[in-house]
Amino acid sequence: MKQNKSIVLIGMPGAGKSTLGVLLAKELALDFVDTDVMIQLREGKTLQDIMDETDYLNLRRIEGDVLSNAELPNHVIATGGSAVYSEEGMANLQRFGPVVFLDCSADELRRRIHNYESRGIAMAPGQSFEELFAERQALYRKYADITVSCDGSDLQQVVDRVLQELQEQD
Ligand SMILES: Nc1ncnc2c1ncn2[C@@H]1O[C@H](COP(=O)(O)OP(=O)(O)O)[C@@H](O)[C@H]1O
Ligand SMILES: O=C(O)C1=C[C@@H](OP(=O)(O)O)[C@@H](O)[C@H](O)C1
Ligand SMILES: [Mg+2]
């Protein structure tokens, strides 16, 4: 594992990007950033406020802008689940290190998250969770350098698996 390299976590809401990212950063002596927090700081409001005041496409636009202009060497970068809608944003993040897709089944995500409809997910009104899941799988796979399955594994097991995959890449 090169010390000057960042790691970019992608995946569905509930996949564990934010929770796992901090643990990974500690294991690897890297800094940690959650791009959702970057968006909120820049806008001075919560993601939910942005969605309520405008719409999900505006949130995706702002997210794309933040990701495209981010300078994040030596970080574990937890993205929001909708980061993959920004081609330019993902291309920028890819400069800093490998993209790790935390791959959870729809059933597992449903078990973890009970408020999908009110969680501020950047999705079209009326779109079902299953439709969103299918639409996004293709995008996560497109950007993934490493895919780690998360079903039935606790946080530490997933962290260990990510670390192992990163070592094998080096
Ligand atoms: N491997 C896991 N096993 C069990 N619970 C998990 C796992 N990964 C994440 N969680 C839980 O799922 C919830 C969502 O995690 P979070 O890190 O916020 O996901 P994301 O940032 O990908 O939306 C949290 O309550 C977290 O503790
Ligand atoms: O997938 C999404 O549309 C979103 C996921 C959220 O982040 P997490 O994936 O960390 O929950 C956050 O960026 C925003 O509420 C939109
Ligand atoms: Mg998160």
Structure description:
With 170 residues, this protein is α/β, with parallel strands linked by helices. The chain has one domain (7-169): 3-Layer(aba) Sandwich (Rossmann fold). Helices cover 51% and strands 12% of the residues. It has eight helices and five strands; from the N terminus they run E-H-E-H-H-H-E-H-E-H-H-E-H. It has a five-stranded parallel β-sheet, sandwiched between helices. Helix 1 (17-28) packs across helix 8 (155-169). The longest helix is centred in the C-terminal third of the chain and has 15 residues, at 129-143. The structure holds adenosine-5'-diphosphate, shikimate-3-phosphate and magnesium ion. Adenosine-5'-diphosphate binds next to helix 1 and helix 8.
Structural descriptors:
ATP binding; 51% helix; single chain; binds magnesium ion; Rossmann fold; P-loop_NTPase; binds shikimate-3-phosphate; aromatic amino acid biosynthesis; binds adenosine-5'-diphosphate
Instruction: Give the strand content.
Output: 5-15%
Number of strands: 5
Radius of gyration: 15 Å
- Could you give the distance between the termini? 6 Å
The low-pLDDT segments are: none
Ligand inventory reads:
adenosine-5'-diphosphate, shikimate-3-phosphate, magnesium ion
Tell me the domain tally. Answer: 1
pLDDT averaged residue by residue: 93
SS summary, helix count: 8
Instruction: Summarize the biggest pleated sheet.
Output: 5 strands, parallel
User: Which structural class is indicated by helix and strand composition?
Assistant: alpha/beta
CATH class: Alpha Beta
Give the second-level CATH assignment, the architecture. Answer: 3-Layer(aba) Sandwich
CATH topology: Rossmann fold
Strand line-up across the major sheet: 2-3-1-4-5
The name of the CATH superfamily reads P-loop containing nucleotide triphosphate hydrolases
Keywords: Amino-acid biosynthesis, Aromatic amino acid biosynthesis, ATP-binding, Cytoplasm, Kinase, Magnesium, Metal-binding, Nucleotide-binding, Transferase
Cofactor: Mg(2+)
Pathway: Metabolic intermediate biosynthesis; chorismate biosynthesis; chorismate from D-erythrose 4-phosphate and phosphoenolpyruvate: step 5/7
InterPro entries: P-loop_NTPase, Shikimate/glucono_kinase, Shikimate_kinase/TSH1
